[in-house]
Amino acid sequence: xxxxxxxxxxxxxxxxxxxxxxxxxxxxxxxxxxxxxxxxxxxxxxxxxxxxxxxxxxxxxxxxxxxxxxxxxxxxxxxxxxxxxxxxxxxxxxxxxxxxxxxxxxxxxxxxxxxxxxxxxxxxxxxxxxxxxxxxxxxxxxxxxxxxxxxxxxxxxxxxxxxxxxxxxxxxxxxxxxxxxxxxxxxxxxxxxxxxxxxxxxxxxxxxxxxxxxxxxxxxxxxxxxxxxxxxxxxxxxxxxxxxx
Length: 245
Hints:
Structural class: alpha/beta
Strand order of the largest sheet: 6-9-10-3-11-12
Largest sheet: 6 strands, mixed
Helix content: 25-40%
Order of helices and strands: EEEHEEHEEHHEHEHEEEH
Number of strands: 12
Radius of gyration: 18 Å
CATH topology: Rossmann fold
CATH class: Alpha Beta
CATH architecture: 3-Layer(aba) Sandwich
């Protein structure tokens, strides 16, 4: 599904990614761990197409399509979804209206008509029920006055509605208490399938107790320095990152 080869990327004059190689197949969950400044958020941002970063070498392909040739919104239309560490609030735009606009933009890019209102509302009800969301949540302004847990749950709701091929969760556990963490992880687990893949970016092993990865990669100084199974996360929790550098 996703193939990254010899990826190098800069922000300004500083090189952050220094030769990333990564292959992710449909149905897999990959965790990317590492200390602050190792390049985790840069990697997720480059995959999603954030324009602050300059790719100087390498390639990123999703189902044999060159993502580096596509604008961020085109990557989203191809099935790339990124859950942000600090989601933006949009006062005056309800959760429902936001997701309606996002879904219809994706359909338009695929040459389809807008989703009929009845079908959209049915889908919203089904996904809200799947994630145990209070329906009143959907009429609130997007992330406006939301708690940290509510913002993260809202992003998982967007993930459920958009049904992307590749979901990138960038430190989605940041600032969450244990109940909110379980809620978010439960939502992700319900949405996993043989047709999609998930990248979980985190500092800590605790999230991986609930979203169990097939592979764990350790990023250090812009390179993947170690790859293993879920047991590697436990080892990192015990020993820290110094031993894998």
